[in-house]
Amino acid sequence: MIRLAVLVSGRGSNLEAILKAVAAGRVAAQPVLVMSDNPQAPALQIARDHRVPALGVSPRALGGREAFFRLVEDTLVDARVDLIALAGFMRLLPSRLVDRFRWRILNVHPSLLPAFPGLDAPRQALEYGVRVTGCTVHFVDEGVDTGPIVLQAAVPVLADDTPETLATRIRREEHRIYPEAIRLLAEGRLVVDGRRVRIV
Ligand code: GRF
Q: Which of 86, 173, 177, 194 is the most exposed, having the fewest neighbouring CB atoms within 10 Å of its CB?
């Protein structure tokens, strides 16, 4: 069974969806570690509620970004992690970590990439005036939200949407497609072929 780590910074609703899918036997992965750059992240409590080892460390307390990511990398390697899922993790990974875990890092983003990468994607979508947005699970490469796309789901934009109502409906779809993407990867069914991901 693949060994799964989840990196989080905040609420942890995607983490919870993933852990529930694992507990229900829908995803053949063993969650071995949850790590956060924010020791106060509610996501850490969700991990502990599911009996998953959880570690929150502030980069500032460690002396900066470099030391933080050295700790992250060492901890992931020590835990013999096969797959890293970023779930609301608000930092760009160092290229060294991306390279070490090439095509073994997934992220979820609240837009239909390549539209609206970066922060505040639901607000960007509203301000642009699109009728349809959604979410994307993709492999992580060195860019910001640029890696090969695994799954996407569309979400209509409603006339009275605010960034918050839109983000809430998008999150519901994230909670469906993120565990599904992890399931496919855990079953060895994702093949990265240039920019395209084939599901075999
Ligand atoms: C999600 O909207 C995800 O797309 C983005 O950050 C948010 C995380 O939410 N990357 P949560 O912490 O999983 O509730």
A: 194
